[in-house]
């Protein structure tokens, strides 16, 4: 079943996080991920405000997890560490 990769982010270093985003885009695509939402308008209803919200659709939970563990994504993450506060979840789509 397909899955969504959902990230809520508050960026503190635009340059470093921009490099993360550039590299992560490639890693996500290599694992079948397609962006549905990337930034843009949002309404915060509950929980901590994270003004950057990203949703990518993957073929499966396993594909999304494999992306997260991949060398390419972990290299991208080295730019995000210290450059943002983040939450990341993978949620299976009930179709």
What does this structure look like?
The protein is an alpha+beta fold. The protein is built from 3 helices and 4 strands, in the order βαββααβ. The protein has one domain (3-92): Alpha-Beta Plaits (2-Layer Sandwich), CATH 3.30.70. It has a 4-stranded antiparallel β-sheet with strand order 2-3-1-4. It is globular, with a radius of gyration of 13 Å. The N and C termini lie close together (8 Å).
CATH architectural category: 2-Layer Sandwich
**Average pLDDT reading:** 96
Query: What Rg do the Cα atoms give?
Result: 13 Å
Number of domains: 1
Read across the widest sheet, the strand sequence of neighbours is 2-3-1-4
Walk me through the topology:
Layout: E1 3-11, H1 14-30, E2 34-38, E3 52-58, H2 61-69, H3 71-80, E4 84-92
Antiparallel strand pairs: 1-3, 1-4, 2-3
Domain DUF1330: 2-92
InterPro entries: Dimeric_a/b-barrel, DUF1330
Labels describing this entry:
95 residues; alpha+beta; Alpha-Beta Plaits; 4-stranded antiparallel β-sheet; DUF1330; Dimeric_a/b-barrel
Describe the structure in brief.
This protein is α+β, with helices and mostly antiparallel strands.
């Amino acid at each position: 079943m397909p899955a969504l990769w959902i990230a809520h982010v508050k960026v503190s270093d635009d340059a470093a996080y921009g490099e993360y985003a550039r590299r992560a885009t490639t890693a996500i695509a290599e694992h079948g991920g397609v962006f549905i939402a990337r930034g843009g308008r949002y309404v915060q209803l509950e929980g901590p405000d994270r003004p950057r919200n990203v949703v990518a659709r993957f073929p499966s939970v396993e594909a999304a997890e494999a992306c997260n563990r991949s060398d390419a994504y972990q290299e991208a993450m080295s730019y995000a560490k210290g450059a943002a506060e983040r939450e990341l979840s993978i949620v299976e789509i009930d179709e």
